[in-house]
Design brief:
- Helix 1 crosses helix 3 and helix 3 packs antiparallel against helix 4.
- By secondary structure, this protein is mainly alpha-helical.
- Strands 2-1-3 form a 3-stranded antiparallel sheet, sandwiched between helices. Strands 4-5 form a two-stranded antiparallel sheet.
- 30% of the residues are buried.
Length: 269
Amino acid sequence: MAQDIVPELLQKIQDDFQKAVSADENIRKFLKKIRDGTATMDETSLFARNLGDILAEILKKDITQDVLPNGRMYYNIAERTIKPVLMKNYELTNEAAKVVQKAIDQENGIGLNAMSGTFPDERVETLVSAISEEGIEWEEVERRMDEPVRNISQSFLDDFIAMNAKFRYREGMDVVIVRKLHGGACAWCRNLAGAYGYEDVPADVYRRHDNCRCTVTYKSGKYLENVWTKKNWTADDKELEKRRNLRLGLTRRTREQARQKEKELKERK
């Protein structure tokens, strides 16, 4: 009977990951802000990406052809190593996001509890199947353990944002989704960048391509209606818009405005 390499391999990955996370200066700074109650959702998104960066490097270091039976990644090995460590990133990201959201809410007098995003089982299953696809070259296995792992890890915060923004909007709160550019953003990302009222959010706002470091967060303000009586406030649309912008300190941008911004950027080059 062939030896089951997964328990020892998984333990090594988990141990190396923990050591790398503990030693990472950016993560240390973020966790200090968490303790101080000053961390932002943008920083939480970058924290999620940072976890993914570390995990991808650990996977490439610890999972090599010489440790695998017949030098290939079988499905049962990929499923029992990749999924648990991604689940750990999911838990770390959601735990941090809840603490950050609680601090933000307390400052704004909001008493709602944040919810964890849904773990993307289908997306992780697709990744596991891709990594263990029969007949692919090892270089392709390594590539599929790299950027997709980083991307999925950052998406854990995106899913948290989507879940909680939807919940708060349904509770009658003013919710604005904010997509910000980070790094050398492409034209597609520049087109999506901006702040959107929840009812105007484009379908692609939570999507990200390989190597995308854009952050997607949300801000929730005061209630737009009295949720106890369900009677709408009498303020007209212009007043609500003014109140929203003053409260959230944002410049709202429609998709057409985002396209115009992209055009302006191109003309400057």
